[in-house]
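Example for tutorial group B:
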């Protein structure tokens, strides 16, 4: 029996994916779109999986993707983006380079390992946890597109300049 796999281009701003089905067809993964109580798949000319996550006032994740991206300018403290830039770097390293100044949401150092914690309301998330949420959304939409058949394997692309320190958190996010 042939395996069903997914290939993900995991981007800082947008991610995209394709699946190879049991019949060896390659299909782009499209985001699910709710329409009149049912889910359909969109083929609009926009990026399907913006790497944006929105939160409610208590700090709970409420959405991942296009809706979060659209909400970002209106509620910047409750929408997180650009998480991949935080992977494998310490808080002090990012502070020194000025990289942290670009983010409108709260970031603080993790006292246990010096990495970054993203703080929304009273909850804290690691970049790995939030990357995992983006990957889960892509996988969920892919499985829905192939009628909920399980995905057996994954291939993820990331920038060639990523060293093992930056790749390891992506692998950890995939495990989550």
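The residue assignment follows.
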């Amino acid at each position: 029996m042939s395996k069903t796999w997914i290939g993900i281009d995991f981007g800082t701003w947008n991610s995209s994916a394709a699946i190879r089905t049991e019949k060896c067809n390659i299909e782009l993964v499209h985001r699910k779109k709710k329409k009149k109580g049912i889910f359909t798949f969109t083929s609009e000319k926009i990026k399907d999986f913006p790497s944006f996550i929105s939160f409610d006032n208590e700090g709970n994740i409420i959405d991942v993707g296009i809706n979060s991206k659209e909400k970002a300018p209106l509620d910047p403290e409750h929408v997180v983006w650009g998480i991949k830039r935080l992977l494998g770097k310490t808080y002090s390293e990012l502070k020194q380079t000025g990289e942290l100044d670009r983010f409108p949401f709260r970031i603080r150092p993790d006292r246990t390992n010096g990495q970054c914690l993203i703080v929304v309301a009273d909850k804290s998330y690691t970049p790995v946890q939030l990357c995992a949420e983006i990957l889960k959304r892509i996988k969920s939409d892919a499985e829905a597109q192939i009628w909920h058949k399980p995905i057996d394997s994954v291939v993820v692309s990331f920038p060639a300049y990523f060293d093992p320190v930056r790749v390891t958190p992506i692998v950890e996010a995939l495990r989550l």
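The radius of gyration is 17 Å. Compare this with the pattern of hydrophobic and polar residues in the output above.
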